[in-house]
Amino acid sequence: MTSRTSWGQKWGQMRQRMLRGGILPPINKLTEVKIKNFKPSGKIERYADGGGLYLEVSVAGGKHWRMKYRVDGKEKRLSFGAWPAVSLLEARDKRDDAKRMLRESRDPGTEKKKVKSEQEAPIFQDIGLEYVEKQREVWAASHTRTVEGRLKLDVYPAFGKKPIAAVTPQDVLAMLRKIEERRAFETASRVLGFCSLIFKYAVTLGLVDTDPCRDLRPALKPYAKGQLAAITKPKEVGALMLSIDDYKGSLVVRSALLFSALTFCRPGEIRHAEWVEIDFDENMWTIPAEKMKGRVEHKVPLSRQALDVLDGIRPYTGSGKYVFPTPRSANRPLSENGVLTALRNMGYTKEQMTAHGFRSMASTLLNELGHRFDVIEAQLAHKGADRIRAVYNRAEYMKERHDLMQAWADYLDELKIRHLER
After folding, report:
1. What is the pLDDT of residues 265-291, one digit of tens each?
2. What tens digit of pLDDT does each residue of 99-122 get?
3. Which candidate, 183, 168, 148, 179, places its Cα nearest to that of 215?
4. Which spans in 123-250 are helix H?
């Protein structure tokens, strides 16, 4: 009896060594054929395969893979899916993965829940797209394009596919550092702001507890925020207006330059001005809300000089859609670089004057001349002027704006005369 037991022990030890060396195949208790032939018995049946893996056959005949294991002395179970969707070989692979986790002191059940939670959690890109879509009716189209472009170029490739709740301040900062490597320091600051808005939106949805961007701004490299160049000295403004009068380029570009100076609207608003928006009876240009940065309709009283510009160009572009069309098509607006290129051809550098500079030029000089700040801000359609427009939405206020625009046009003529007399 002793010899038999001794031999059995020796054989078991030998077999284990051969198994570890890959000499013998392991003995498995289940096969695909056996599993196929298992029939419901009217109660739950369990068929072991080894290593804690077993097949559970339900009362109705469903066959599901389970694994029994222990962590800290407590018995737990894992589910690997149903047969035949999960084959015997796949179930064994899952069992082996679970046992590997146990050897690494990790609970496979906890790991499975973590993976499932991450797979089901909304990713940053989805929330970003949702937020931008909600703002589309509020933001100007140009601003929306800017935000979408920055997110697509810099943010989404970095952590767009990551669950939004798993994005850390370090993730965001690493993305910003790559932007700074391009020396686009102002862009990095703006992108941080875009990300912060998305995280704050996620806070309202209960997806995250806090905005991971909130403490990152001091970590960004400082930059000198440049102002768009503008001519604001009366003497130089007179010279600029004479240069526009003498401009030898196309009539459309020359007219756009004059109209920019006289109305001090944003370059994009001027380029996209349409003839249907001009009311010659009321001497008014009404810019639709969708074209405005603040998404609020804006009225521009037209001075006599501004009307002269329109009358001068109407025989050439009046049959088309745009007041200032591109030379290639009457139904396409002047390009973004049309006015800017003209300024460069006139000899003005980017440090001296930009297309946007006409706004700063008017704002500075009108304030120096003593015109009411509220009226100037409203005519500039600055964001802070929404309250002003609500308060002064009366006929006498519009008359004040008409007077402002005419006074400005007359002042520009006066500066030209002064410069000629020098």
Report:
1. 999 999 999 999 999 999 999 999 888
2. 888 888 888 877 777 766 555 679
3. 168
4. 124-135, 141-150, 156-159, 169-181, 185-204, 234-245
Residue 104: count of CB within 10 angstroms of its CB: 9
Contacting residues for 61 by C-beta, under 8 A, at least 6 apart: 39, 40
Token pair listed for 237: 């403004």
When the candidates are 3.60.15.10, 3.20.20.70, 3.30.160.390, 3.40.50.720, the CATH number that belongs to 31-106 is: 3.30.160.390
pTM passes above 0.90: no
Dihedral in degrees, nearest 10, Cα atoms 291, 295, 301, 304: -20
Q: Are strands 74-82 and 298-301 parallel, antiparallel or unpaired?
A: unpaired
Beta bridge partners of 123: 163
Active site residues: 266, 293, 356, 359, 382, 392
Distances (CA, A) of 330 to 314, 321, 410: 12, 7, 31
Q: Which amino acid is at 359?
A: R
270 phi and psi angles, rounded to 5 deg: -70, -45
Cis peptide before 84 (omega within 30 of 0): yes
The structure tokens listed for 207 are: 């997806």
CATH no. for 234-421: 1.10.443.10
Neighbouring C-beta atoms of residue 139, cutoff 10 Å: 17
* Residue tagged 């701004």 (tokens): 217
| Cα–Cα dist 260/256, whole Å | 6
Query: ∠ at Cα 286 (285, 288), nearest 5°?
Result: 145
Q: Does domain 124-219 have CATH number 1.10.150.130?
A: yes
Distance CA 75, CA 53 (A): 13
